[in-house]
Amino acid sequence: LFPHMKVAQNLAFPLEVRHMPRAEIARRVRDALALVRLENYEDRLPKELSGGQQQRIALARALIFRPAVVLMDEPLGALDRHLREEMQREIRAIHSRLGPTVVYVTHDQHEALALSDRVAIMAEGRIVQVDRPEALYRRPKTRFAASFFGDCNFLPAEMLYSSNGMGRARLVDGTECLIAGEHVRGPMILALRPEDIHVEESHPVQDDGVIRVPATIQERTFLGDTVQMVVDTVSVRSLIVKLPAFEGHQLTVGQQVTLWWRPTALSLLEEQPEAHPHSENEPSRWST
């Protein structure tokens, strides 16, 4: 914002340089202030506003001349978490009312998921993947895309055969499972989100289509609403698991548990695993 201009003058500036009539400028300034719920702030200077109020006025100024496209480049980066979440709600509400196309640049994965109809993930100047937020999170195509949205376990596996959009894969511990997607026979990488892994304290024997693996808890961290653990299996080390706090409050380091997940939780990545030769007696490692 221009520091020497009052709020109303800041809002009027884009309209004045477009030589709009004074009456139209006054009406649009009133409408813009109402849009961001700051009707009584027109005579204040920017330094007299809070950080969130300044951002709302800046947003209103960008929209007041009704552009078809708005570029927002890290607009909430300088705000604390509470203000960022408040401004995210403001941006969603304003977008739903006015409807301009917004190109929103951010490094914050939560912001990308919360605000977008479509997300384009970029790495080294190239678009890696474009899709709806939920599809990007559930079905990433590369390690980079999967890692951008938080923790992810990457499991080396071998495709035994595939047909008609389904395949049978063998994990490093010998477990075989069905997965969605086709792949040439041979090595591949599967992505598995930590929150898609469940924990059973018992060792059930029933076969109901889920994948079960015995494991030992090596680390446990309480994060308020969740409990994060690092677990090892006979052939797998350092697998990240995230549980709701009420499910993980009784689990302890050193405890023997059974991990399980559904085959639909696995995503087939469109890249080949790196070669890491090891002897038959040396445990494989699933990287996170």
Give an account of the 3D structure.
With 288 residues, the protein is an alpha+beta fold. 27% of the residues lie in helices and 30% in strands. The protein contains eight helices and 14 strands. A hairpin with a 4-residue loop joins strand 6 (166-171) and strand 7. Helix 1 (7-16) packs parallel to helix 3 (51-63) and helix 3 runs parallel beside helix 4. Residues 275-288 have low confidence and may be disordered.
| Poorly predicted ranges | 275-288
What would the principal axes of the Cα set say about the shape? elongated
Number of continuous helical runs = 8
Q: Largest sheet, described in full?
A: 5 strands, antiparallel
Structural class: alpha+beta
Give the strand order of the largest sheet, numbering strands 1, 2, ... along the chain: 7-6-5-8-14
Radius of gyration: 25 Å
Q: What order do the SSEs take from the amino end to the carboxyl end, as H and E?
A: HHHEHEHEEHHEEEEEEEEHEE
SSE blueprint and pairings:
Layout: H1 7-16, H2 22-35, H3 51-63, E1 69-73, H4 81-98, E2 101-105, H5 109-115, E3 119-123, E4 126-131, H6 133-138, H7 143-148, E5 153-163, E6 166-171, E7 176-180, E8 186-192, E9 198-200, E10 211-222, E11 226-232, E12 239-244, H8 245-248, E13 256-261, E14 267-268
Characteristic key phrases:
288 residues, alpha+beta, 5-stranded antiparallel β-sheet, 8 helices, 27% helix, elongated, disordered C terminus
Quick summary:
This protein is of the alpha+beta class and 288 residues long. It has helices at 7-16, 22-35, 51-63, 81-98, 109-115, 133-138, 143-148, 245-248, and strands at residues 69-73, 101-105, 119-123, 126-131, 153-163, 166-171, 176-180, 186-192, 198-200, 211-222, 226-232, 239-244, 256-261, 267-268.
